[in-house]
Input
Amino acid sequence: MTNSITNLFNIQYPIVQGGMIWVSGWKLASAVSNAGGLGLIGAGSMYPEVLREHIQKCKKATAKPFGVNVPMLYPQIEEIMNIIVEEEVRIVFTSAGNPKTWTSFLKDKGITVVHVVSSVTFAQKAEAAGVNAIVCEGFEAGGHNGREETTTFTLIPMIKQNVSIPVIAAGGIANGRGMLAAMVLGADGVQIGSRFAATVESSAHKNFKQVIIDLKDGDTQLTLKELAPVRLVKNHFYHQIQELYQQNPTIEQIKELLGRARAKKGMFEGDLDNGELEIGQIAGIINKIKPASQVLKDIVEEYNTVKSSL
Amino acid sequence: MTNSITNLFNIQYPIVQGGMIWVSGWKLASAVSNAGGLGLIGAGSMYPEVLREHIQKCKKATAKPFGVNVPMLYPQIEEIMNIIVEEEVRIVFTSAGNPKTWTSFLKDKGITVVHVVSSVTFAQKAEAAGVNAIVCEGFEAGGHNGREETTTFTLIPMIKQNVSIPVIAAGGIANGRGMLAAMVLGADGVQIGSRFAATVESSAHKNFKQVIIDLKDGDTQLTLKELAPVRLVKNHFYHQIQELYQQNPTIEQIKELLGRARAKKGMFEGDLDNGELEIGQIAGIINKIKPASQVLKDIVEEYNTVKSSL
Output
């Protein structure tokens, strides 16, 4: 499976574990890296010193390459970036912001930089900013998402036509068939989120893991488009948002309902009614909590089996 | 390429041309069938006697199997179904309605019936109603679409897990890579719309064909969700809809803006500002008007080339 992505990160399989808030700590990231993929610590839900602790524990738990995902809207972004440099993290995935802002800073320190995009325009901007690769994330992905609502199936070929750097497909991929389909569409690697959220090593609350196992098609929806579009499970909180929309609310009213710490409440504390539960459409085919290493093994096996059968 | 779909329809390639309103008349359907795919006449935009004429002309233009697509919300549906039987059409694709209503009637006449679905539940209902196969159509498809907003990439495996009849994937497929990816995800065949809308034999107005060629990612959006969700080009009419939404309109106000014959105006008469232009996200990779036979040939060639290269 050697290709531009395995070479870029010096890993065995071109499989990246998405750096999800409240789900991807050092346990999950190191388990994925130890199994031959690229594990990512999700910095978006961590205070700076918590991130430092996760990085240090991850370094102890694996000798393999791992990375950190940083949403660039993070308030203490400078502190986060300095910790990443101080702790000698070698790979950073940036998302939700302008790739120009931090790419040079990180690359000057010898750090490999990948930026997450949801459109051709942002892919071209990321390439121009000098990133080493891009994640192109489709509409079906969980959590925050692009305004254009372009799906993985159409986004991969459109981006592939328009950039020269390696492309990692994300959104809707949870097994070997999905990985192979993404590669057929032109991807050089895949980033997998939801499937890794339902692993033993994921920091997701057990209630949330059970939700992922139970979800069917149509059980998630992209909402809160006036703030930042996000794909959520249609739970009580989601329905509260929809009821508010019936009343033609102001942005302030929406923000007030959203409040604070909804994502933590749902995904980390397991409040399935009042929490924000971010997961992708592909949860509909996930039906078992497994160790992360088993997830990787199953994906690679199915990928090879289906490929040989064509 | 012999499989359950080529056997079901007695065709050379498991490629169906979508029966699009205002676009798929006898010229396009017969051209696709003559080239080894399955051409479909789109009855949704035809008066009953116009449909009869198209069927008769199609029979003269090809000795190969072809079919008719019938949206079941069509007001004169009984007249349409009787014409289909009288003219001895052998294949019918039904959409937008309950598959129970007409499947037995058609199957009793020896007609092969396929139903278009956008969710696992509807797929199971169609199977229970006795259809011979289903089209599973993702969120990225042009025109009318499911409320669940499930994408092709995730819909195919979820439906494949839950039905035993053959599955035809639709939405986002316009070339050989797309076809192969759909088959890898579990599809037995593909239905292709947008790519065939931009062919020489398509009845789309030349202005609309040029729009398809020019479109980029993010240029279409699913809208009119209160009535029936439909993916449209973001033209002047689309923006009028969005402006109306800012005013918290009633369903009646939305219906009044929509008015009548918007689809004909846009797609058939070429009024790009005031017409409704239905096309899929994958239009972003379509950059040339070609004969339908060339489209099929290119898809099959790319499919085989990519497959061999894996």
Observations:
- The longest strand of chain A covers residues 66-71.
- Residues 106 and 113 of chain A are 7 Å apart (CA to CA).
- Chain A has a mean pLDDT of 97.
- Chain A touches chain B through 44 residues (CB under 8 Å).
